[in-house]
Amino acid sequence: MRLTANKIAGILRQHGYRLTPQRHAVLKAIASSQDCVNPAEICTRVRQEYPTIGMATIYRSIKMLADLSLVCRVNPDSRSRNYLMRRSMSHHHHLVCSQCGRTIDFTHCDLSQLEKRLTRETGFIIEGHILEIYGRCPECCAASPVPNPR
Amino acid sequence: MRLTANKIAGILRQHGYRLTPQRHAVLKAIASSQDCVNPAEICTRVRQEYPTIGMATIYRSIKMLADLSLVCRVNPDSRSRNYLMRRSMSHHHHLVCSQCGRTIDFTHCDLSQLEKRLTRETGFIIEGHILEIYGRCPECCAASPVPNPR
DNA sequence: GTGTAAATGATATTAATTCTCAGTTAGGGT
DNA sequence: ACCCTAACTGAGAATTAATATCATTTACAC
Question: Which of A17, A90, A92, B53 is 20 to 30 Å from the Cα of B10, by its Cα?
Answer without folding.
Answer: B53
